[in-house]
């Protein structure tokens, strides 16, 4: 796909200057959709903090956990969200913000720019503010305990746990720190570097004009998934960052023998970090099959490179922890305490979670709004615009794979407390939303959309990240 035309999900420039003339009513509906989507998202967050108390040790899950990130702002949330709504409603303001964000995106994505490093340094300040609140309950606390006790890693996330163990041992031997949280904080920052590198590549090499690329950058940087990269204690930061880097190779133009090798190596490492990366295999397989037509030998090398990660995981378990492969398979229960990974289509008894239950569907919607806030505005745009010519199926396969993860995987602790299990779905959904929207808008509309998305995304994601870093209820 050539840079300068189309998007990840469609060919051509959508409703650009050469689009057919639209009727007056259609124009009004489409203009309304551009504003209504961001306003609806802000409105949900404004009324969202109701239901049970926030997540905590043994406490109930909030019914609307995907839209209660501003709860800790108290009465100030109305001013915070209202200011964002004013920018969305004022065409001049959202256009001005859009132009600034587009220019900043180009600067951030420049190959020799230091803007990315400055952004990462600003994020590191949040890490230094203190322990993430997620260490108070659930897997965060148990992960910190197992690091100090040198418990063998579970099979579903061998390489991730081994990496944290190794860094903790190194820090202790050097006498730097003894708190196990620092191992997770530092690896979280490393994952953030990888993620930011992938975002910058999308902003630099993505299809379409500068505003189209800025939409992708904004969608990825305002995803709730970015919480993983601010000192978050869990086993999902590295796998999510590596998968996003793999997505950049899958969706952006690449030539030569290196691309299949990097795709295969990255996918294998991601699977070794956590088995949830298997959701990306349909998209990777499609891409490799397509690449094999023109580059058969490099593609074969990519398939072989994909075995490196799993081989490392097996080696760690056998050589470091003396766990035979058959014991690894018998002792692995990725579904948690109930040993059930996938939701049943209907409940075994009243009150049990099931695939078609209202509670599960509500949880899925909460996760989508939390992990990819731009999905809701993008959906309204897609419903009011003509459908462009379908483009690269890889973007759709990525989103479908992780959409299936959202729908089918059972969160052992409940969706609110187990949101991080699904965090890797955020970037594929955000990429799909940005690509599908950019293809349906004119150049001027894309700039205004960038402004709306940036303001609304910051309004809902900044409180989410800061609240967790400061240990506040969010």
Task: Summarize the structure in short.
This protein has 19 helices and two strands. The protein is mostly helical and 474 residues long.
Describe the structure.
The chain has 474 residues and is an all-alpha fold. It has one domain (10-469). 61% of the residues lie in helices and 1% in strands. The protein has 19 helices and 2 strands. It has helices spanning 24-47, 76-89, 91-109, 115-127, 139-149, 158-174, 181-205, 210-221, 237-251, 258-273, 281-292, 296-305, 308-320, 325-331, 358-371, 375-384, 393-408, 426-438, 443-469; strands spanning 10-11, 389-390. Helix 8 packs parallel to helix 19. The radius of gyration is 22 Å and the shape is globular.
Topology record:
Blueprint: E1 10-11, H1 24-47, H2 76-89, H3 91-109, H4 115-127, H5 139-149, H6 158-174, H7 181-205, H8 210-221, H9 237-251, H10 258-273, H11 281-292, H12 296-305, H13 308-320, H14 325-331, H15 358-371, H16 375-384, E2 389-390, H17 393-408, H18 426-438, H19 443-469
Antiparallel strand pairs: 1-2
Helix/strand/pairing category: mainly alpha
What is the residue-mean pLDDT, rounded to a whole number? 80
Helix count equals 19
Low-confidence sequence ranges: 1-5, 11-21, 327-338
Instruction: Give the proportion of residues in helices.
Output: 55-70%
Overall morphology: globular
Distance N terminus to C terminus?
Answer: 41 Å
Described by strand count, sense and barrel closure, the largest sheet is: 2 strands, antiparallel
How many strands in all? 2
Task: Strand order, main sheet: write it out.
Answer: 1-2
SSE sequence, one letter per element: EHHHHHHHHHHHHHHHHEHHH
Domains, number: 1
What is the gyration radius calculated from CA atoms?
Answer: 22 Å
Q: How much beta, percentage-wise? A: under 5%
């Amino acid at each position: 796909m050539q840079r300068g035309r189309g998007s990840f999900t469609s060919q051509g420039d959508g409703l650009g200057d050469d689009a057919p003339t639209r009727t007056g009513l259609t124009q009004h509906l489409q203009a309304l959709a551009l504003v209504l989507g961001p306003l609806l998202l802000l409105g949900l967050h404004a009324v969202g903090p109701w239901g049970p108390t926030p997540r905590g040790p043994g406490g109930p899950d909030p019914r609307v956990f995907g839209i209660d990130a501003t709860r800790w702002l108290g009465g100030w949330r109305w001013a915070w969200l209202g200011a964002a709504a004013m920018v969305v409603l004022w065409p001049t303001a959202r256009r001005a913000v859009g132009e600034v964000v587009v220019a900043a995106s180009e600067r951030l994505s420049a190959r020799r720019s230091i803007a990315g490093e400055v952004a990462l340094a600003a994020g590191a300040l949040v890490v230094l503010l203190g322990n993430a609140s997620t260490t108070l309950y659930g897997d965060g606390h148990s992960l910190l305990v197992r690091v100090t006790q040198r418990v063998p890693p579970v099979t579903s996330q061998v390489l991730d746990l081994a990496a944290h163990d190794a860094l903790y041992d190194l820090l202790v031997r050097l006498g730097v720190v003894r708190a196990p949280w620092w191992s997770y904080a530092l690896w979280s920052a490393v994952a953030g570097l990888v993620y930011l590198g992938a975002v910058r590549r999308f902003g630099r090499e993505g299809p379409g004009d500068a505003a189209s690329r800025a939409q992708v950058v904004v969608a990825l940087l305002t995803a709730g998934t970015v919480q993983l990269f601010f000192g978050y204690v869990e086993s999902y930061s590295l796998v999510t960052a590596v998968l996003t880097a793999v997505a950049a190779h899958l969706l952006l133009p690449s030539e030569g023998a290196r691309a299949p090798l990097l795709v295969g190596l990255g996918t294998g490492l991601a699977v070794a970090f956590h088995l949830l990366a298997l959701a990306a295999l349909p998209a990777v397989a499609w891409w490799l099959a397509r690449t094999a037509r023109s580059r058969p030998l490099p593609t074969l090398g990519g398939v072989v490179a994909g075995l490196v990660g799993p081989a490392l995981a097996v080696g760690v378990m056998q050589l470091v922890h003396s766990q035979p492969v058959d014991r690894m398979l018998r002792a692995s229960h990725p579904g948690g305490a109930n040993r059930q990974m996938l939701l049943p289509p209907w409940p075994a008894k009243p009150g049990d979670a099931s695939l078609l239950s209202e509670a599960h569907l509500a949880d899925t919607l909460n996760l989508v709004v939390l992990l990819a806030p731009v999905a809701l505005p993008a959906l309204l745009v897609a419903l009011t615009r003509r459908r462009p010519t379908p483009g690269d199926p890889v973007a759709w396969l990525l989103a479908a794979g992780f959409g299936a993860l959202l729908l089918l995987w059972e969160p052992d602790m409940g969706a609110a407390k187990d949101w991080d299990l699904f965090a890797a779905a955020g970037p594929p959904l955000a990429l799909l939303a940005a690509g599908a929207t950019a293809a349906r808008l004119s150049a001027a509309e894309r700039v205004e959309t960038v402004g709306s998305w940036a303001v609304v995304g910051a309004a809902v994601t900044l409180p989410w990240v800061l609240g967790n870093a400061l240990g506040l209820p969010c």
